[in-house]
Amino acid sequence: MQTGNKPGNGKKPYAVRAVLVKGQQILLIHHAGRRRRPPRKCWTFPGGRLDPDETDPVTALRREMHEELSLEIEVLGQIGRYYSRLGSDYVIYAARPLGPIGPVNRDEVRDLVWLTPAEVYEWHCQEKLQFGFEMDAVLAYLRNFT
To answer: Cβ(4)–Cβ(133) under 8 Å?
Structure first.
């Protein structure tokens, strides 16, 4: 299935992610659950799957931010629903941290980095981004939230 922003169909998404913005920078993470040797395409936004009993994506996003980054967030709004290279749907939100990150759960997050949108674009061109929708989501964030 092709990646890209597609209208929501009202069904529960596979997972949620946040374009987490601090100043002019966006947080990307490398999840610890990925292979021991980092694959080339390993960086994405923080977030994760909804638990089986979760129906509200924002609640799931807040839980994921707390589990991964020990972080409370302000959700600014939904950016869109995107599809990974494998066809899983992700609802992406714009968010801001409400304090410092940490401690980081190393069982969840191997590494993290703050990048400018231009640097995210460079990583996109270098094929470092995991799902294929990250740059589209950053551009949608810039159009709708700045």
So the answer is: yes
pLDDT of residue 55 exceeding 50: yes
Tokens of 67: 């589990």
- Domains of the chain are 5-145 (3.90.79.10)
pTM: 0.88
Q: What are the structure tokens assigned to 124, written together?
A: 């996109």
Give the position of tokens 């509200």.
56
Q: Tell me the H-state helices in 5-133.
A: 57-69, 117-125
Distance between CA atoms of residues 89 and 82, nearest Å:
6
Q: From the CB of residue 102, how many other CB atoms can be counted at a distance below 10 Å?
A: 10
pLDDT confidence band for 9 (50 / 70 / 90): low
